[in-house]
Every structure is written in structure tokens, then in C-alpha cells.
Amino acid sequence: MQNKYSASVCTLGCRVNQYETDCIISEFISSGFEIKDFNDDSCDIYVINTCAVTAGSDKKSKQMIRRAKKLNPCAIIAVCGCFSQANPEIFKSDLQADIILGTPEKTKIVKLALDILNSRSAPPYISVKDISEYKIYENINAAFSEKTRAYIKIQDGCEAACSYCIIPQVRGGEKSRAYEDIYAEIKRFERMNYHEIVLTGIEISSYENGLIYLLEKLNHEPDLNNIKSIRLSSVDPSVIKKDFTERLAKLDKVANHLHLSLQSGSSRILKLMRRRYNAEQAFDNISYAKSKINNLNITADIIAGFPGETDADFELTLKIVKNLKIYHAHIFKYSKRPGTDAANYAGQVPENIKNARSKKLASVCAKIKAELHAENTGREFDIILEDWQGGYYTAKTKNFIDVKIKNNDETLRGSMRRVRITGCDKDYLYGEMLHPDYF
After folding, report:
1. What is the predicted pLDDT for the residue at 137?
2. Most buried residue, 91, 174, 182, 382, by most Cβ within 10 Å?
3. Would you say residue 1 has pLDDT above 60?
């Protein structure tokens, strides 16, 4: 039975947060809430799912809370996520949120909101426990995704102890989700006519029994015929060894795209970061993968201006980006995180140099992107149509290249179509649809 209440959720940060937002929204919907846009000033509760990966993420989280309070001063404000796990008192004293949770138990927000709205309790409610208490994977579920691909969380936590990263402090140790629960959630989305899933987690490379084992099981499931594409959110380059690559190359459903948590092309900097590989190992692993997996496309996370990074170190990063033909880089200017070793390293790089290096990286990737677009002109791809605007659908090829398809039928979102690429520019491939009733 639908109640009179409405809710909105703002998601900051990674795909794990997006998945957990999908779970929160699913719980709101099942409890009868109407879901509204975050800019709507009539919501009864605004939820901010926070991020703490950079200082900019902290700032954005605070901004969104203030925006929600301005939109509707009478509404309930709830926060959860990595920033509130790390600094719950900020949200109580400075920002005066009504419900404050950390990274676990996010879906409790719905019941707590109902208790406040129905006057069974008075805010604030704070429940942020020591993250080390959570040693077992918390199996929350999504029955909703606003995107045309469904995020499926397979793991939480990280034990890598990288010198720059606060995430182990707010997500805790590694915890893998049971295969039966992963399969059941994928099956639910398949029944809702999703063709593509994205396996996500804080460190999916650490999945129990091996990530490749999970991929092989899902790829060969006889009852997931409607799932045509399985994507990976982010992979540690150290995992992509010869055996991994050779097994991956045999899996027809797994997308020929890898997003690498590369971070740098300098072995000296990678050692300071406490990454599990050096630049030569990363290059050799990915080069071998590109030789074995047809039309494999590479994207990556890269940090610009890590403490101690010299011009020579940065040139090595540019070199590996060029040599691996990295199609797109998520470029993070190094940001000090309290409680991390790198925050106290000597040789902190000035902001103007970080900015210049970020721009240079972006420029190199843009050139590679344009070259890869030209190479893919004339090819055919099976793609899932995403958003429609102005007579065009946007989409991504299975190897994660951006495409626009001219079509005036606005009802095809989420369907799979065969497309021939007829042209390109620096931003997109342009295609024409073949076989209109393909899927």
C-alpha cells in the first residue's frame, strides 16, 4: 500500500555506491515511497550517499547536504557512505543530519525515516560502528536500476593498504558475496529484460576463489541466456596474468574491455604507493591480454602529482598510456587523505603542477580516443541502446567505445541492436541500426 511520503537519493563516488543506492531506492519503493529528483523541493527525506576518496568528495558531500536543507528545511536529511563512516561527528554537529549511518546497513535508512515521519522516534539517529566489526558480507539486494546496465556487487572491503587510500579504513577487510546470491540477483534483472551486468566491488580482483572462477561460472550458466554482456568495474593489473588472460579470452559474454586501477607508469612511484605490481609487470600483463583478446579496449585510473612524482616519473606514465593505447583515463589529482601514510610524505607536488599534468594526460588520452574511433569505423557491433535525445541514442560498444545512433523511435531504450559504424569524431562513433528487431 502506497503511503504519502516521498524520497530522493544523491549518489557520490564509485559504482559500489551506485549499487548501494539502487538497494536503498528498492527498499523505499517496496515501503511505498515515491522516488523524486534530488532537486525537487517537496521530498520528505533526502539521502546523501557520501564518498571520501578525495578532499573534493568530502566537499561535495557537504554541499549536497546544504542543498537538500535549502530545498526543504522541514525534510529529513540522511547520510551514509564512506565520508560519514570516517567522520560521523561532522554530520551531527556541523551539518545537523537527522540520520547518520556509515558504509554498512544503508538500507536501514528507510525504516528509520518511517519511524521519524510517523513520530515513533526523534532525530538525530547515529549508528556508525567500528568497521572492523563487520567481517561477513552484508547481502543487501537491488530490485531497481535507473541505468540500462545493472550493477551487481560481488565483494566489499580491501586489504591492499595503499599508502594514499582511506578506503580500507571505511570499508574494512575483504568480504566476498556468495555465488548463489550473485546469481539470484542477476536472474532478477534478467527477468526485467536487462541484457548487461556490471560486476562491482571495492576490490573485485580479490574475489574469493578467484575472479576468473566467478566469470567462468556466470558465463556458462544455462539459465542466463538473456544476459549478453558481463562487464568488470575495475581490475588490479597484477591479476591479469597469463593464465587469467587465456581463460578470459574463452568467455564470450565477458566484455572485451578492462578498466585498470593503474595509478602510475613509474615503478618508483608505484612502490611508494604500495601497489602490488611495478610498471613493467603491468605493461607486460596488459600487452599479453591485448594480444589474446580480440579488439580489447583499455581504460584506467591514474593519479597525477603523487608525492615525490618528478617530471621523469610523469613521462613514464605518459609513455605507458601511449603504449597501451588507453582509451580513457579517470584522472585524479593526488589528494591528501587524513590517516594515510602518503599524506605525510616529503615532496608534495604543487597544485599548479598537478593541474598541468592532469591536462597533459587528458590531452594524450583524447588523441588516442580519436585514433581508436577512426580504427573502428566500418565495423559492426551488438550494442545496448541507452539514452535518447535529439534523434540520437547514446550507447557503448561491448569494448566500451562511445556511440551515437540516429533513430527517431524513443521506445527502444535498453534493447540490444546490431549497429554498423559509418563515421566518427573525437567524441563518438556514429552508427546506423541493422536488423531493427534483433533483440
Report:
1. 96
2. 91
3. no
